[in-house]
């Protein structure tokens, strides 16, 4: 028997292969979404790796063109910062500060000053003269030294003392 021509044999083989694949299709369809997602993720990771490799090569080339800063001016390190001392820590080192505290008394014009919140003090500042405000500022610095109180008193003193101040703000 004479063999069939090559194109006929190829067509028969192709038909059998298509039939076999068609029979496997229901099983392959169940895993198809997972396969597609997995291959997409692999492709994405390969692209990211190539981009990173190119960036590294670019960094190597560009670093030779301009020297890097030893320590950028915006960089700060813990050992560079000076420690912030609280009023109580500063007072422990300065014996004269303790004496000033003992001498300073609550101003007579505002006897409940130590119990006032910052909002309550702000409401009372409008009725005080520059001299009284300076007394309060000295008292605050000698006792609590609260930054928000000191700042508010300083601002009010500047407002009251300025030559072109608005009438009773």
Describe it for me?
The chain is mainly alpha-helical. The protein has two domains: about 5-65; about 85-160, no CATH class. It is about 65% helix and about 0% strand. The chain is built from six helices and no strands. The protein has helices at about 5-65, 85-95, 95-105, 120-125, 130-140, 145-160. α2 (about 85-95) packs across α3 (about 95-105) and α5 packs antiparallel against α6 (about 145-160). The longest helix has about 60 residues, at about 5-65. The model has no long low-confidence stretch (mean pLDDT about 80).
List the helices and strands and how they pair.
Layout: H1 6-65, H2 87-93, H3 95-103, H4 118-125, H5 130-142, H6 147-161
Helix pairs in contact: 2-3, 5-6
State the main characteristics:
Lipid droplet-associated protein; DUF8129; 169 residues
Summed up, what is this model?
With 169 residues, the protein is mostly helical. It has helices spanning 6-65, 87-93, 95-103, 118-125, 130-142, 147-161. It folds into 2 domains: 7-65; 87-160, no CATH class.
Oligomer: single chain
Stretches with pLDDT under 50, minimum 5 residues: none
What kind of sheet is the major sheet? none
- Overall pLDDT confidence: 80
Tally of discrete structural domains: 2
Order of helices and strands: HHHHHH
């Amino acid at each position: 028997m004479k063999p069939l021509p090559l194109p006929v044999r190829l067509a028969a083989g192709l038909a059998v292969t298509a039939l076999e694949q068609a029979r496997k299709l229901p099983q392959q369809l169940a895993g198809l979404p997972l396969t597609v997602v997995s291959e997409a993720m692999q492709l994405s990771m390969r692209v990211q790796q190539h981009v990173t490799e190119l960036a590294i090569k670019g960094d190597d080339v560009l670093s030779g063109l301009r020297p890097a800063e030893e320590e950028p001016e915006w960089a700060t390190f813990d050992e560079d910062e000076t420690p912030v001392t609280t009023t109580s820590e500063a007072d422990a080192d300065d014996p004269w500060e303790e004496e000033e505290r003992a001498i300073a008394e609550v101003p007579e014009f505002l006897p409940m000053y130590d119990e006032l919140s910052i909002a309550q003090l702000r409401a009372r500042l409008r009725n005080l003269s520059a001299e009284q405000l300076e007394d309060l500022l000295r008292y605050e610095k000698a006792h609590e030294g609260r930054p928000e109180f000191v700042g508010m008193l300083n601002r009010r003193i500047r407002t009251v003392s300025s030559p072109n101040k608005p009438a009773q703000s």
